[in-house]
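ok so for the tutorial part 2 we go from a plain amino acid sequence to predicted structure tokens. step 1 is just haveing the sequence, like this:
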Amino acid sequence: MKKDDPAYKGQSAYNPALLAIYDVWVLKFMASVVWKTPIPPAIARYRQHLGGRHLDVGPGTGYFIEQAAPSAGTEITLLDPNQHVLKHVSSRLAAWQPRTVEADVMKPLPVDGGYDSAALSFVLHCLRGPMSNKATAIRNIADVLTPDGVLFGGTVLGPDEPHSRSARAFLWAFNKEGGFDNRDDTVEGLHAILDASFRHVEIERSGSSALFSAIGPRPA
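step 2 — the prediction. this is what the tokens look like for a chain of 220 residues:
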């Protein structure tokens, strides 16, 4: 991804050094201590919704898929604009022989479609705002799902939502640095962009985050 691309900043920090400590820093510390968002419910969503043909958009380190332990026959596609992420996750999930696709979710996805499930786990808060702009990512994923397909994941909400003092400090710092762009992200805004592309939407607050699932893509 070129440095002048609007999406560059949100993914540029994911280098080998960060990926090596990501599970401890982000999942064990930031999620539990700062965002007050326990990880087990996010893993449970994977186990509940992960289909036989699954697309993971912005897979991080592959932790969630690994912990969900999908069956051996599960077809997994990893999509991310960052080559470091794709290399790291494909190695971690080698037992499932995942396919990797270097692409930006804000652009039409270069995949065949027909996926039973797709995950967008803690990616939306990194995409360029406002939230109406992030609707493009939701629509792009909806377009490659089956008629009964499900999109699920989570996102850190913006400062208008209830947060602890430490969470607000990190939100301010991450938005100033550019890794986050979620100043306008709310539960209502999240519901609106999911509802525009899916027939059934469920959202659950979890500390500073929102966990969501959306089933049945609407026609484009």
